[in-house]
Design goal:
Shape: elongated
Number of helices: 11
Order of helices and strands: HHHHHHHEEHEHEEHH
Strand order of the largest sheet: 2-1-3-4-5
Strand content: 5-15%
Largest sheet: 5 strands, mixed
CATH class of the largest domain: Alpha Beta
Amino acid sequence: MAGKTENLHNGHRQRLRGRYRREGLDGFADHEVLELLLFYAIPYQDTNPLAHRLLERFGSLAGVLDAPEEELLKVKGIGENAALLLKILPDIYRRYQISQQKDVQLIAGENDAAAYLQSRFIGKKQECVLLMLLNSRHQALFCDEVSEGTATTANIYVRRIVQKAVRYDAVFAFLAHNHPSGEILPSVQDLEATQLIAQALKNVNVQLVDHFIISQKDYLSLKQSGYFQYILSTEKYENCQYKIAESTKEEKRP
């Protein structure tokens, strides 16, 4: 009986693999994607019920891949190998995106910069800050993490940002940090940190062009949304929050 069950599973696996080779993943349902993936962590078990249990618990394929490892392990049938396989995929995809970008040098504007930086936050669960430096021809000289933690600790890493800008003889800079919560509106601390960094870079003749706040599905440009004009127009910040709130109300008026 066990042999018949094993042959049935093997036949199903071969059919699903064959279907992927012929068609790719576009026609697969989310549970079939998980089922196919779990073949490589669970060799002798029907992974279809397990795929459904994962989706029932976490709501979507993205929810499964974004779930903490300790939560994945609570799902019946998920062991350490399967949990690690699921967790490593977003990180691999992020590295894939970064690898693709290695030959991309020209950053034509804020939209290019946002797309370039957004991919580097894929799978990130902790807040971190990225800095990108450009030369006068808008070619990327440096792009990497300068701090792990909130942008409110700008006084800790502002020296590092300035050192990088000087070392690479940069002319322009872009800043980005993520909000794992999904909220992309800046806090007062985000704006204060931006002002501090912009002033520090200005002292070494580097222009902070924009600061992006990034979530998993969206991003906010402080420049395009109008926050920059308040942040950079004065050395003092006392009235900034009030002015921003008022301008937001005006934008919403018909």
